[in-house]
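INFO  loader      accepted 1 record
INFO  loader      residues=495
INFO  predictor   begin
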Amino acid sequence: MAQLTKLLVANRGEIALRIIRSARLFGLKTVAVYSAADAKSAHVGAADEATAIGPAEAAKSYLDIAAIIAAAKKSRADAIHPGYGFLSERPEFAQAAADAQIVFVGPRPEVMAALGDKVAARRIAVAAGVPVVPGIEIAEIPAAREFAAVAGYPILIKAAAGGGGRGMRVVAEAAQLESALEAAAREAAAAFGDGRIFVEKYLAHPRHIEIQILGDEHGNIVALGERDCSIQRRHQKIIEESPAPGLSSAMRATIIEAALKLASAAHYTNAGTVEFLVEDDNFYFLEVNARLQVEHPVTEMRFGCDLVCEQLRIASGGKVSEPAAPSGAAIECRINAEDPEHDFRPATGTVLHLNVPGGPGVRFDSHMTRGAEVTPWYDGLLGKLVCYGANREEARGRLVNALSEFALLGVTNNAAYLRDIIASEQFRDAKLSTHFIDEFFSQWKISAAEIDAAIVAAAITAGDRQPEGVASRAGAGRRSPWDGLNNFELWGSRR
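INFO  predictor   done
INFO  writer      dumping tokens
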């Protein structure tokens, strides 16, 4: 077993802080890297050392392989953890680390390359006997027309390289096919430098189920249950939970077996996720995420483990730990800097006030502090709020309460939106599919009371009194929370 001593974290924000904390538990010194925009970020101060790697633009900092490898050499780090996003699934980054004789905390470059290409991954799945969505690999117009005529519309066009919904098009009728193929290829080429696309049958009402896997260099591969990630916005997950509600024990066991077969066929090592679409009584392989997932805390809470420490143990040459028996239920929601009322427009600003919820079974993974700057340069994830309970309903109730306690002022965010989803009858009854948002929450609006509550919190934080015009909404004869507050101005303009 290799003796690692120092870990460079090739990421930023919440996940960088998360990795630093576990690396410290594992006995490693840590090195943070940061761009000019992140010089005061929490992960920089949390690490034992920190190295600047470039300007704010991700392409010139967090996506600059040469700069990160140089920082690792300069700091004498003997391992690199990529986190998620940025370079985490780039085989050339894993190869650059190997060439520099630095341990990469993740799968081998050749495995990452094979699984990162959706067409190649699909072939591995077929060879391993894992079901895939009916489709064709070559998306030329005549072949696509022939496939659609047999499979029936709608069909789905997907990029062979990359993900996140880019290069993806749903085609409802033959008249749209040619233009959709061309547009998808252009978008894929622009996003990933690879314009290859393929075509699949479009599933009308699927659930998104994923299996957490861990593999080591000794040939051991284990699965740590499943997560339901069906609630998505524009193919981006916003709520994840484990176990998947309503999934039969037989279906769960079959999907886990398929994930392990595929991982074994790919000779997978370290942490990863095998993702599936489930519709009716059928399931289909979707893709492999060859890295740690954003939603990994729900698995940690159910299995009582630390997946980052497991990654470090495997990267050190150790054997994967045998998973403990899972218990209870956990639900995570992603609090993002965005405006749900206005087409989820990205938001920026300075955190003026932050109230973090607490209590049994409540976890908040974040790099946010009062005074933190949220810039337009990077992903808008502010934090992940996760709640655990003895069962799904207890976890759901705790998450509703936690979201009600949560307050972050100065940066528009989706916390109230998430709370209303978690509190909804549809979520309570687990009417889950990848179309959940479109079906039930496409017209969501924040209430006036919600706005008033935010201003109350700001007023109390500032030690000021009620803004004008709000008390009138309390109604005649009712005691208003504004009664005891002093004069108050919000950002210099009286309301």
